[in-house]
C-alpha cells in the first residue's frame, strides 16, 4: 500500500508536465505553424457538416447525396468505392502510424500514396509531428494543408484547450479531431456517419481479428494472422499484445474524451449540436438521429 502511494506521488510531477505545462510550452514553440489555423476560425459559422467514419454502414449510404454538403473524412476514406462520387471538404489524418518512421511500413506507404487519391480540392489536416515525414517524401504539394498539435489527455482535473491555434489533448482517433476542427471552424450542427464504435465486439491482436469492420475491403482483410513477420508490417508490435482488458481501458478513455470535449465545446458554443446518424452505433455520447431525417431538413 505504502509503495503504491509513493509511486503515485512520484508520478504527479510527470503528469502535470505532460498534461498542463507541456501543451502550453509546445503551443508557444510551434505558434508560427499553429497560427495558420486562424484562417479557418469561424469560417463556417452557422452551417452544418458531416463527419464520415470508416464503419461498415457507410458502404450502404449513398454518399453522392452529400455532394453539396461540407464533409470531413478520415484516414483511409479513399479506399471506399464511393470516394470518387464525393469530393470531401476536409480529409483528416491524425493517427501517428502514418508518419512514424519506426511504425508499421504498410501505413507509412499508405501515407505516401495519398497524393494520388486525395483530390487537390480537398483540404488536408494532420498532426504537425508529420511535417518531417511530409517534407522528406515531398507530399501534398498540390494540397492546402493545416497542422494540429496534440499533447496530453482530456481530463476532469486539468484545463485543456480545443482551439487549433494551441495544442489540444490527444483525441485518440481522427473522428474526434474532426469534431474539434469543425467546432473551431464554426459549424453549429455536426452529423456523424460510419461511427459504429463497436470496437469491443471483437478481440484484436495475434491469432485474433486484425482490425475493425470497415466500409471497404483491402489487403489487411485477408492477412494470415499467424504469420508474425507479416503482421509486423501492418500492426504496431504493442497492439499485437493488446489484451481485452487493455482494449476496454483504451475505449473507455476514448468515450471519456468525447464526453469532455462535447461538454467544453457546448459551454463555449451554446448553439453547437452533434448528432450520431450511424445505424446500430455504440457511440451514445451524442443524440442519435436518422440519416433520412437529416436530409429532409
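^ C-alpha cells above, recovered residues below v
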Amino acid at each position: 500500500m505504502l509503495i503504491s502511494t509513493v509511486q503515485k506521488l512520484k508520478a504527479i510531477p510527470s503528469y502535470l508536465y505532460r498534461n498542463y505545462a507541456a501543451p502550453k510550452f509546445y503551443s508557444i514553440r510551434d505558434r508560427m505553424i499553429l497560427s495558420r489555423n486562424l484562417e479557418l476560425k469561424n469560417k463556417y459559422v452557422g452551417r452544418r457538416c458531416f463527419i464520415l467514419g470508416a464503419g461498415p454502414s457507410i458502404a450502404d449510404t449513398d454518399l453522392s447525396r452529400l455532394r453539396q454538403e461540407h464533409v470531413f473524412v478520415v484516414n483511409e476514406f479513399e479506399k471506399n468505392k464511393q470516394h470518387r462520387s464525393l469530393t470531401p471538404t476536409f480529409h483528416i489524418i491524425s493517427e501517428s502510424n502514418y508518419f512514424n518512421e519506426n511504425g508499421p511500413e504498410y501505413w507509412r506507404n499508405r501515407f505516401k500514396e495519398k497524393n494520388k487519391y486525395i483530390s487537390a480540392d480537398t483540404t488536408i489536416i494532420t498532426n504537425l509531428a508529420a511535417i518531417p515525414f511530409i517534407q522528406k517524401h515531398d507530399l501534398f504539394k498540390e494540397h492546402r494543408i493545416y497542422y494540429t498539435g496534440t499533447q496530453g489527455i482530456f481530463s476532469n482535473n486539468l484545463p485543456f484547450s480545443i482551439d487549433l491555434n494551441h495544442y489540444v489533448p490527444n483525441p485518440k482517433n481522427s473522428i474526434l479531431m474532426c469534431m474539434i476542427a469543425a467546432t473551431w471552424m464554426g459549424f453549429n450542427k455536426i452529423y456523424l456517419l460510419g461511427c459504429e464504435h463497436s470496437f469491443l465486439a471483437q478481440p484484436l491482436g495475434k491469432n485474433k481479428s486484425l482490425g475493425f469492420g470497415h466500409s471497404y475491403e483491402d489487403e489487411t482483410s485477408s492477412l494470415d494472422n499467424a504469420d508474425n513477420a507479416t503482421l509486423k508490417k501492418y500492426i504496431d508490435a504493442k497492439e499485437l499484445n493488446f489484451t481485452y482488458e487493455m482494449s476496454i481501458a483504451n475505449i473507455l478513455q476514448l468515450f471519456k474524451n468525447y464526453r469532455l470535449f462535447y461538454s467544453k465545446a457546448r459551454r463555449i458554443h451554446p448553439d453547437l449540436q452533434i448528432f450520431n446518424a450511424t445505424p446500430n452505433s455504440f457511440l451514445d455520447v451524442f443524440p442519435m438521429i436518422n440519416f433520412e431525417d437529416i436530409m429532409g431538413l
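The two ends are 58 Å apart (CA to CA).
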